[in-house]
Amino acid sequence: MLVILKKNTLEFLGICSVDPIDTETPELGIWIKKSDHGNSFGREAIYALKDWVDKNLEYKYLSYPVDKRNIPSRKIPESFGGKVFREFQQTNKSGNLLNEVEYRIYK
Ligand SMILES: CC(C)(COP(=O)(O)OP(=O)(O)OC[C@H]1O[C@@H](n2cnc3c(N)ncnc32)[C@H](O)[C@@H]1OP(=O)(O)O)[C@@H](O)C(=O)NCCC(=O)NCCS
Fold it and tell me: Is the pTM of this model over 0.90?
């Protein structure tokens, strides 16, 4: 889990994660605070994280599950050439049923 800071001011922007790292299919996660949406910071952070993962971990593919309606998030794996591998339903921690898609990103 990494903290994302703005380069020039070190302002907190959000967090990103790769977990668990001792499997062949780690999962990527990203959260940017609302006031900083629209600047592609999420994409930039995931690019940097994948660069680190490619240099430091052995893996088969990276999993990126996302709510089907979350277009800004879906654009991140798609920009790596990631493809939807499966669709499924999941209840989140607030008890809402989500329609999810899982992207797989290869090295
Ligand atoms: C998902 C998230 C990280 C994306 O952040 P980001 O990379 O900074 O993305 P941006 O807000 O700059 O938008 C990225 C792209 O989505 C597009 N987009 C944004 N809102 C959109 C909308 N409502 N409809 C269509 N496209 C939209 C932008 O135009 C941009 O496209 P482009 O790169 O082709 O120009 C951020 O929205 C977030 O943290 N959301 C809350 C947590 C979350 O959903 N995490 C992901 C869980 S899987």
Answer: yes
